[in-house]
Write a structure and sequence with these properties.
The protein has 8 helices and 5 strands, in the order αββαβααβαβααα. It has 182 residues and is mainly alpha-helical. It has one domain: TIM Barrel (Alpha-Beta Barrel), CATH 3.20.20. It has a 3-stranded parallel sheet with strand order 1-4-5, covered by helices on one side. Strands 2-3 form a two-stranded antiparallel sheet.
Length: 182
């Protein structure tokens, strides 16, 4: 089904997003009392390497296709997602979300994926929250975490200041516009 959806995205030019790895409504008592989508969603491991292999064997090298991958399983950032996104032209890594949408979660994301996937194989910071009042604060936190990462790279002599300034702009708005073709 994912492979067919990728083919359709290639045909219509729409960006595909994959958000697996949540066991929904884990607490039966909470579910019985309040219904679905009331919490108790728990992260679960997802095998991206084998799970996406058929799709990537068929469409992974298509530069006109964009697939943005998200995860709730932090262990997959450096082990699976960063190497996949660093290799396949169609892949981008979505920002930390849900349980990792926090200063420390964002910092760990940058530390775990940037060395292998680079900055330009990420989708910047997008937002699909239904908590509309949190959007400005969440984007501010993401910008601050990315700026801190860039500042550290400049201080360590691993990045020039002009490169950091360019990357700051890309991480704020450029990568999102490119990833979603805006």
């Amino acid at each position: 089904m994912l492979t067919e959806m990728a083919r359709m995205s290639l045909d219509d030019g729409l960006v595909m997003q994959i958000h697996p790895g949540s066991v929904r409504n884990h607490n039966a008592q909470l579910y019985a009392r309040y219904g679905r989508d009331m919490g108790a969603d728990i992260p679960a491991p997802t095998n991206y390497v084998e799970g996406l292999r058929p799709l990537l064997n068929r469409f992974g090298n298509e530069s006109d296709l964009t697939i943005i991958l998200f995860t709730l399983d932090e262990a997959t950032y450096s082990r699976e997602l960063a190497p996949l996104a660093g290799h396949y032209p169609c892949l981008r890594l979505g920002p930390p979300w849900w349980f990792h949408d926090s200063p420390e979660g964002m910092r760990r994301f940058r530390e775990l994926v940037t060395e292998t996937a680079g900055f330009y194989n990420t989708a910047g910071f997008n937002d699909d929250t239904r908590a509309f009042l949190s959007i400005p604060a969440r984007h501010d936190v993401a910008r601050r975490m990315d700026a801190g990462c860039l500042a550290r790279l400049v201080a360590e002599g691993r990045l020039e200041m002009d490169e950091a300034e360019e990357l700051a702009q890309e991480l704020t708005v450029g990568l999102v516009r490119k990833a979603y073709r805006l």
